[in-house]
Specification:
heterodimer, A: alpha/beta, Rossmann fold, 2 domains, 6-stranded mixed beta sheet, 11 strands, B: mainly alpha, ABC transporter involved in vitamin B12 uptake, BtuC, two-stranded antiparallel ribbon
């Protein structure tokens, strides 16, 4: 009898221990926005089967001297654990080491990986390595910043995922400003762009413009480059306040500039009278939203990008087709949901 | 003096043995290292460093330094690219690119030899100027899309060898011949050994120094053209940091900052050791920052070994 009690106790203990392994079984906690965005992103990719044979995947990132890429690397490592595959992650020493990055990928091609993931520095710097991979029949997963025409002409066929919908990010942030202002009877808004000519900046700006134009009682008075730069964005905001004292909202192409805009607004004694929204949700941005200084920031997860590209590579190595327009889901962070965004990475 | 020559050879044999040791080590650690596919990668990836470092060897032999080689690479690549975009034949554009490099080198040489400014200062200044001109001329945007014949210089193959490796080999042979067989090479070493004495002996000091900087920048321009061809892109950020890699290869190869001697074969070995390390460490999957650490340590060891050799050499000189 005593023995049975022991056994019962042991089984009970095992069940309790393993309970968290079955998602949804006992978790009363709803998914956080990050978990939801992650699940929605993976749903777009579809089921990725766990490979039967041990796969080896090589990855080259831009650099690891920036938290964004470190988080992405952790995403790759998480996917490697989840699927029981080996993923080697390398990175160029600096954000402009174009030739170094090419060397690294070429060396990886020579190592006979089952698939390669490549986050290119410029539109063309990795193309010679793509060509070598294509000759050896190694699938390469990259993103849509690659100049596909040049790659095809050279004889390479990389899989280029959409990954980040910059246009949608600009639109999401600006829509929040426009909707909020519209409920209060409208107002004047402006855009602070990134570096002129940079594709991310142009797309985010276009998205914001389209969102503002969709609201008749919202008037866009200015769109100026802030060069991704704190000091530049600060002076642009000062000038905007001078020219338009009744300005009510600013959509910025990244958080650095949005935080500078907030500083400029506070320095001008207009605290709380101009809604500022940024993009990227950097840690200081999170903090500013919590304090109510920044109205919002559009978040996208480098961790999930790493996981997604890894999953795509695992699928490609098994000969599966990848939806090329695949993008990670972006989420708008505001004071309403910032408390539940602690796990955003 | 015979013993000195023997010790120089010993130094080169030491570097060669070290390179062979590295190859053995990496091939034990990874089955992928000792394959022709990978070894040709090493040659391809070291080609630009070899070309630039050979030019740097000549400058260091005159007790000088050239910090502008990276900027010269970028600007000459852009000149070549721009001319091809203006529908010049690619070989003419290439010659113009080399000429632009030579001009930049002549400016460095004028500053050093005629104005008597420290080469470190002159080339630090021109490095900034040439880089700025490159950024302004292109508005920081890359120029891309070149004729196939030109691209073959960077990514093509001549027989089993990458074409850029053959260009590097030619540059090496040329540099070695200049140092060993020409009056110009002898003059350069004399200038580096003792400027005053060289002048009194009737060596055309000014002309030699200007010539050396011109030659160095022409080599750098060649490096810039290879990079442009390989990436099918010319951009203002090309060649950033190459001056340090080139100087490392030169010093590792046994050319002394005290001037007066130049070991072009040593420089070749130095560049190959650095290239092999970068390649092998990637192959055995060592993270980037550790790679830089390892390369730095190997560099320091090489310099210490060289210091030791010099001490022995000095003793040998006194004995004879």
């Amino acid at each position: 009898m005593l023995r049975n009690e022991w056994l019962f106790g042991l089984i009970l203990l095992l069940v309790v221990w393993t309970l968290p392994l079955f998602p949804g079984s006992a978790s009363a906690e709803p998914m956080t926005p990050w978990e939801k965005a992650r699940a929605a992103t993976f749903a777009k990719l579809g089921e990725v089967p766990r490979p039967d044979a041990p796969l080896k995947i090589g990855t080259v990132l831009v650099t690891l001297s920036n938290p964004f890429w470190v988080s992405m690397k952790e995403g790759y490592e998480n996917a490697a654990r989840e699927f029981g595959v080996t993923i080697d992650v390398q990175a160029a020493p600096q954000e402009n080491s174009v030739a170094n990055q090419l060397n690294i990928l070429e060396n990886m091609v020579a190592k006979d990986y089952d698939a390669l993931c490549a986050h290119t520095i410029t539109a063309r710097n990795l193309i010679p390595a793509f060509v070598k991979a294509a000759r050896k029949g190694i699938p390469v997963v990259s993103d849509n910043r690659v100049d596909l025409a040049a790659a095809h002409e050279a004889g390479a066929e990389p899989i280029t995922l959409g990954l980040v919908d910059f246009y949608g990010q600009g639109r999401l942030g600006a829509e929040y400003i426009a909707r909020t202002l519209s409920e209060k009877g409208g107002g004047k808004v402006a855009i602070i762009e990134g570096l002129p000519g940079a594709p991310q900046s142009e797309a985010r700006t276009r998205g914001a413009k389209d969102a503002f134009e969709a609201f008749p009682d919202v008037e866009m008075v200015s769109s100026q480059p802030g060069n991704w730069d704190r000091a530049k964005a600060f002076s642009v905001t000062q000038n905007l306040i001078q020219a338009h004292p009744d300005l009510a909202g600013i959509q910025c192409a990244n958080d650095i500039m949005a935080l500078a805009a907030v500083e400029a607004i506070e320095a001008a004694g207009k605290t709380g009278r101009i809604m500022v929204v940024g993009i990227d949700l950097i840690p200081q941005g999170k903090e500013a939203i919590r304090q109510g200084r920044l109205a919002g920031s559009v978040a996208f997860s480098p961790f999930v990008i790493g996981e997604t590209v890894a999953r795509a590579a695992i699928a490609a190595a098994q000969g599966l087709k990848i939806p090329e327009d695949l993008e990670v889901v972006s989420v708008l962070a505001t004071k309403d949901n910032i408390g539940r965004l602690a796990d955003w990475k | 003096m015979k013993r000195v020559g023997r010790l120089n050879r010993l130094q080169r044999m030491g570097l060669l043995a070290f390179l062979a040791g590295l190859a053995v080590l990496f091939s034990l650690l990874s089955p992928h290292f000792l394959r022709w596919e990978n070894l040709s990668n090493v040659l391809l990836q070291s080609a630009v460093q070899i070309v630039v470092a050979v030019g740097m060897t000549l400058v260091v032999a005159t007790r000088g330094i050239d910090l502008s080689v990276g900027s010269v690479m970028a600007l000459s690549g852009i000149v070549t690219a721009g001319l091809m975009k203006a529908h010049w034949a690619w070989d003419l554009a290439l010659l113009a690119g080399l000429a632009s490099g030579a001009t930049m080198g002549a400016l460095n040489g004028l500053g050093v030899a005629l104005l008597g400014i420290n080469p470190f200062i002159v080339t630090l200044g021109t490095a900034g100027i040439f880089r700025a001109v490159a950024l302004i001329a292109t508005d920081a945007r890359p120029i891309y899309g070149f004729p196939l014949g030109f691209r073959a210089l960077g990514s093509g193959r001549w027989g089993p060898l990458p074409s850029s490796a053959l260009i590097a080999l030619a540059a090496f042979v040329f540099g070695a011949l200049v140092v060993a067989w020409t009056r110009f090479g002898t003059n350069a070493r004399a200038v580096g050994d003792n400027l005053e004495a060289a002048y009194r002996l009737g060596v055309p000091v000014t002309r030699t120094r200007i010539g050396i900087y011109t030659l160095c920048s022409t080599f750098a321009a060649l490096g810039g053209i290879i990079v442009t061809a390989r990436l099918n892109t010319a951009e203002a950020i090309a060649g950033m940091g190459i001056e340090l890699e080139a100087i490392a290869a030169v010093v590792m190869g046994g050319t002394s900052f005290a001037g007066g001697e130049a070991s072009v074969p040593g420089t070749l070995l130095g560049a190959l050791i650095i290239g092999t390390l970068a390649n092998g460490l990637t192959i055995i999957n060592v993270p980037t920052y550790y790679q830089q650490l390892v390369i730095g340590v190997v560099f320091m060891v090489a310099v210490l070994a060289d210091r030791l050799r010099r001490r022995t050499q000095r003793n040998a000189l006194f004995e004879t």
